[in-house]
Amino acid sequence: MIGKLLVLSGPGGVGKSTISREIRKDSRFWLSVSYTTRAARTNEVDGLDYHFISAAKFDELIVADAFLEYAAFAGAKYGTPRAAVETALKSGKHVLLEIEISGARQVRDRFPSAILIFLMPPSFEELSMRITTRGTDHPERIAARLEIAAAEMATASEFDHILVNHEVDEVVAGLVALATAVE
To answer: Which of 85-89, 136-140, 163-167 has the lowest mean pLDDT?
Structure first.
């Protein structure tokens, strides 16, 4: 059995990383670890949260066609390793990609059977509070992130499914249901 490819996108601060950490506990899923050129946050672990690499190395991987998708976002580059995703799918694992909207569009072009899921906050006010209370960004960066978030939320209709992140367990159950539904 070949696994299903699920793509989880949504605005920054909506809880994609939290959802991904929870789904990782389900042995039927494999969570792709993206490559990025941004610096690690204090709570992030190289190889678990991201593969942190230089911009030069990232560009080498682009030339080698090593990414299923890649994009620049908020001053950094992010990419999904193609070979690792294909290997996991062939082994029967459901693969979850936690990626930005432009990356989701690229995956749709390369993997038409991928299931694209947009993770929506309960409200824009809730998203603003989550981003502000994180304590990782200065006020100008928060304002920029919220502006980007509003534009991203306007793309939700491009996705196959929209899940609202009221409760992490509900979203995880929704992802499991999408992956295990018989076609």
So the answer is: 136-140
Residue type, 140: E
Nearest to 58 by CA among 41, 84, 43, 78: 78
Residue range 5-180, CATH number: 3.40.50.300
Going by C-alpha positions, the residue among 155, 130, 158 that lies closest to residue 145 is 130
CA-nearest of 154, 73, 164 to 126 is: 164
User: pLDDT digits over 94-123, tens only?
Assistant: 999 998 898 999 999 999 999 999 999 999
Domain ranges of the chain: 5-180
Q: Edge-to-edge, what's the strand order for the sheet holding 51-52?
A: 51-52, 35-36, 76-81, 67-73
Report residue 70 as tokens: 């890649």
C-alpha–C-alpha distance, residues 161 and 172, integer Å: 13
Task: Return mean pLDDT, the chain.
Answer: 92
Between 144 and 96, the more confident residue is: 96
**Structural tokens at position 73:** 């976002």
3-state helix, strand, coil split of the chain in percent (to 5) is: 45, 25, 35
